[in-house]
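Handout, section B. The chain below has 311 residues.
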Amino acid sequence: MNNRYALIYCPNHRPFTSVKKRWEKIAMLLDKHGIDYDMVQSEDQQAIGRLVTMMINNGYKNIIIAGGDSALNDTVNCLMSVEKVVREEISIGVIPNGVMNDFASFWGFTYQNIEESIIAIKNHRVRKVDVGCIRYETKKGEKVQRYFLNCVNVGLLAGIQKRRAQIRRKVWSRELSFALCMIMILFEKVFYRMTYTINYVTETHRIVTMCIGSALGYGQTPNAVPYNGQLDITIVRHSALHHMAEAIYLFLRGKILNHKRIRPYRARMIEIEAPKGCPISIDGHPAESPVGKYTIDVQQEEINFIIESRR
């Protein structure tokens, strides 16, 4: 099995996109570049971890995810659950095929250019990357430890992602679901009083949203890199609407950190205490709101990731 790739195909039901034609294009390019692979298709998001475990148990050393950030997140959490000696022998790669492909885009892979990802898989240049880890307790008393490649969102943006996931079950259109979500969020609480400790300094503020990123953080932590053993943290404090409009403008231009109401930090760990019900999301996955204090830290060079050859 050492020379064959395990490929897990996660269908993405984008508007005006044929799941079948998308897979046929991927398969054609894999064959063109002479890549030997065995493909399984995930029925739903919950199946990814089970399929990754099956591939590991069957001896595959190279696992390719044709999916987005959420699929990569499930894969990484599965890998982090096995012994380190086993994980050290396994490499993962990605063919962007999700709604959000932020971690793939950090390495120069895009949804439109499938062949670039497949050439990287063939060249097989591997780099060890960091994984973030969030540890918290749920209202049922369950202790949760979840890993991430990209980011954790706390507050407004996490609430948007949660709402959107709920709406998408009922509304087919991606664009319409996002618009409905934004309208609904206007009638909800848009800031949370949080206490957080970064680099041994504790502060309490009214926070609109917070992003803790090991990578790009969907544009909120644009200077983060997943191989320096550090987390980039962007905190948006409560401000007037005209300030928020300016922040959105700078975000769209990729200059979000230039806003005077936004505080950027870099640290190995952050401890957060937020009010009950404050939403969080992990690599785009809506998660159950923590109870009490919780911590987010980074573990350096834990995963072997297949990267673009020129980086």
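Note. The radius of gyration is 19 Å. Compare this with the example in section A.
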